[in-house]
Amino acid sequence: MPSQREDRGDADNPQESDVERFGGETRPCPKCNADIYDEAEWCHKCGHVLSQADQKTPGWIFVTASVLITGFLFFLLFR
Question: 37, 47, 55, 60: which is deepest, by most CB within 10 A?
C-alpha cells in the first residue's frame, strides 16, 4: 500500500521550490522560534498560524503618529 505522504527528504530544510516561491528571507516563529519564511501563513514546525498581529510595527510609525497628533492638538488649542 503506498504511503499517503511522499518522501520529502529532510523536512527541516526548505525545498528548492519553496525558496523560489517565498524567497530566502526568514524570521523566527513567535511560538517555537523556528526559522520560517516572511510570507508564510503558518509555522511548518509547530503549526502556529501567523497573522498580522505577529509582525511587529516599526517604531517610526508611533513616533510619526505622536508628532502629528501633538501638532494637530497644538494647532487647535493655540490658533
Answer: 37
Distance CA 42, CA 36 (A): 8
What is the pLDDT averaged over residues 31-54? 80
User: How far apart, in Å, are the Cα atoms of 5 and each of 1, 44, 48, 50?
Assistant: 12, 15, 21, 24
List the alpha helices (DSSP H) in the chain: 16-22, 59-77
Q: Where are the domains of the chain?
A: 16-77
For residue 70, give the DSSP letter.
H
Sign of CA dihedral 12, 16, 6, 10: negative
Q: Which residue has the cell 493655540?
A: 78
Q: Judge contact between 75 and 67, C-beta under 8 A.
A: no
Question: How sure is the predictor about 48, in pLDDT bands with cuts at 50, 70 and 90?
Answer: confident
**pTM confidence score:** 0.38
